[in-house]
Specification:
There is one protein chain. The protein is 26% helix and 24% strand. The strands form three sheets. It has a nine-stranded mixed β-sheet with strand order 11-10-9-8-12-6-13-16-15, sandwiched between helices. A five-stranded mixed β-sheet has the order 2-1-3-4-5, sandwiched between helices. A two-stranded antiparallel ribbon has the order 7-14. The chain is elongated, with a radius of gyration of 23 Å.
């Protein structure tokens, strides 16, 4: 990293911010690739812009260079993520940068998957600077985490009263947070490959888990249900046919999955573990989801699933919405299941606190992952 560190000018930082704005347009559509934006600047004038639309399509750098055409020669390329050097479904971006005649590259972050071409570009005479900007790293957090795992990146979203409850009594659906928080969660759903809940949430809340109002993206949305001991009603709203949505996915221990024939008509049922398995192994279930092509998951499950994810070290980020409300009843349901699921303390790292309507949303990462 140190070999690419260079002081950036205010204009450099301004152009980098533009690449982040462009990259954000691809959020939710580019998986398993990261969202990336690029800007070509010559004589202090933007001559080309582009972003990565979806996996398999041209990368951001190529789109920006195509727009710049001849003006790319002798120009500076600003890109939110270090240009790649590997051959996948598209040729290496580093080669395209050289062929276009770019003389300087300023990247927001290095490629965490080690597919970057910064060193190669420098060897071929291009001046390269990497900012390692937190904004650039935030854009690729799910990609960076998933690239080192056999499971998807998992973000856990929970909502609770100020005294840590999700409902005044068991079995009751109770909305605690504001409409502004609901809009915030909508954006979180857009940014992840799939939304996941447990079977208990489906039985109690019968959620649809769609993005409303509809937001078009190039990658289909996926809804996931985890079943432990029994299935769910095939007429549940999570299995509704929706434009822009792939078939919902049901994950269950193989011994149970073999008995879920009714659900196979409305969902992709995936058995986890050996045929006789009657207990859902959460890490194995998430690995099966990754094999199904899911690279990032937003979990909106209940107290039990949340506690299991945390205890197993299978959650990467949390979004904790706190409503200005107290539910001091004897039967109030705690936001995390008690008992044997969480026996040890769990260290967290807060990095964002946001006001959403009347609510506070605290976000951060788990220190044990």
């Amino acid at each position: 990293m140190e070999q690419f560190h260079r002081p950036l000018t205010p204009l450099d930082e301004l152009y980098l911010q533009r690449t982040y704005e462009l990259a954000a347009r691809g959020i939710g559509s580019t998986s398993p690739n990261p969202p990336v934006g690029a800007v070509v600047v010559r004589d202090n004038r933007i001559v080309g812009e582009g972003y990565h639309h979806r996996a398999g399509d041209a990368h951001a750098e190529v789109n920006a260079l195509r727009q710049a055409a001849r003006d790319a020669r002798g120009a500076t390329l600003y890109v939110s993520l270090e240009p790649c050097r590997h051959v996948g479904r598209t040729p290496p971006c580093a080669d395209a940068v050289i062929e276009a005649g770019i003389v300087r590259v300023v990247a927001g972050a290095l490629d965490p998957a080690l597919h970057g071409g910064a060193a190669e570009l420098r060897e071929r005479g291009v001046d390269v600077a990497v900012a390692q900007d937190p904004d650039a790293r935030n854009l690729i957090e799910p990609f960076a985490r998933a690239s080192s795992l056999r499971r998807p990146y998992v973000a856990l979203k929970m909502a609770m009263s100020l005294d840590g409850a999700i409902a005044s009594r068991p079995g009751v659906e109770q909305r605690l947070t504001s409409q502004e928080t609901a809009h915030y969660v909508r954006d979180l759903r857009i940014a992840h490959d799939a939304v996941m809940v447990g079977a208990g949430t489906v039985r109690v809340d019968d959620p649809q888990l769609t993005v409303r109002p509809a937001h078009h993206r190039l990658r289909p949305y996926v809804r996931v249900v985890l079943c432990q001991t029994e299935g769910v009603n095939p007429r549940s709203r999570i299995f509704s046919v929706e434009e822009g949505y792939a078939k919902s996915v049901v994950l269950a221990p193989s011994g149970l999955a073999n008995r879920l024939d009714e659900l196979r008509a409305v969902a992709d049922v995936i058995g986890v573990g050996p045929p006789e398995n009657l207990r859902l192994d959460l890490p194995q279930a998430l690995e099966a989801l990754r094999e199904h092509g899911i690279y990032s998951v937003l979990c909106e499950g209940g107290p039990t699933l949340a506690a299991r994810l945390i205890a197993a070290g299978q959650a990467d980020r949390f979004y904790w919405a706190v409503a200005p409300l107290i539910l001091p009843t004897q039967s109030a349901v705690p936001v995390l299941a008690r008992g044997d699921l969480l026996r040890d303390s769990v260290r967290l790292q807060f990095d964002r606190v946001e006001r959403k309507g009347e609510d506070i949303v605290i976000s951060g990462t788990f220190a044990n992952v």
